[in-house]
Amino acid sequence: MIAIPDRTPLPRKFFDRPVLEVAPDLLGRILVRTTPDGPIALRLSEVEAYDGPNDPGSHAYRGRTARNDVMFGPPGHVYVYFTYGMWFCMNLVCGPEGRASAVLLRAGEIIEGAELARTRRLSARNDKELAKGPARLATALDVDRALNGTDACTADDTPLRVLTGAPVPSGQVRNGPRTGVSGDGAVHPWRFWVADDPTVSPYRAHVPRRRRG
């Protein structure tokens, strides 16, 4: 177990900023998932920003739907979506309210509750792989659509909350293209990660899925 430097929940005003400010500032923060079996804490090491109406890669680029409704605020809430018919991915909504933007949580280091995360990630070869990628992160933390819309800014014992932790110095932050994003959104260097961190997932460019004959 690694000591958490600051267990103060991040305030809503932290998220009520442009997404390109929030995303790199989330590195080093602590995500706590409380489950009936016990808590799991994760230090964020990799994220991606999605900027709603300005971003062809965003789920909210074409407007509000039942699926992306949480992205429109209020800030500091959790947006969970289902992808490829098998995986969940988790985002943190940014402000201002009414303008959809969110940060995809791509990877992190499990610093508390690793024994519980291992029961959900049996294929992980070591603890560095427990949350190495957005679907693996959600699986390790037992995140699904039932948590969509959860307020992550509360101090109570809620299912998900984000703590201050220890923000990463700017000199250790790297950025580049987002993983698997196609079209006009592929050019945005809006993936942020901690340099030389072994929990960061490998970059993969978008590859079109072929239809089966």
From TrEMBL:
<dbReference type="InterPro" id="IPR003180">
    <property type="entry name" value="MPG"/>
</dbReference>
<dbReference type="Pfam" id="PF02245">
    <property type="entry name" value="Pur_DNA_glyco"/>
</dbReference>
<keyword id="KW-0234">DNA repair</keyword>
<keyword id="KW-0326">Glycosidase</keyword>
<keyword id="KW-0378">Hydrolase</keyword>
<keyword id="KW-0227">DNA damage</keyword>
<dbReference type="InterPro" id="IPR036995">
    <property type="entry name" value="MPG_sf"/>
</dbReference>
<protein>
    <recommendedName>
        <fullName>Putative 3-methyladenine DNA glycosylase</fullName>
        <ecNumber>3.2.2.-</ecNumber>
    </recommendedName>
</protein>
<dbReference type="InterPro" id="IPR011034">
    <property type="entry name" value="Formyl_transferase-like_C_sf"/>
</dbReference>
<comment type="similarity">
    <text>Belongs to the DNA glycosylase MPG family.</text>
</comment>
<dbReference type="GO" id="GO:0016798">
    <property type="term" value="F:hydrolase activity, acting on glycosyl bonds"/>
</dbReference>
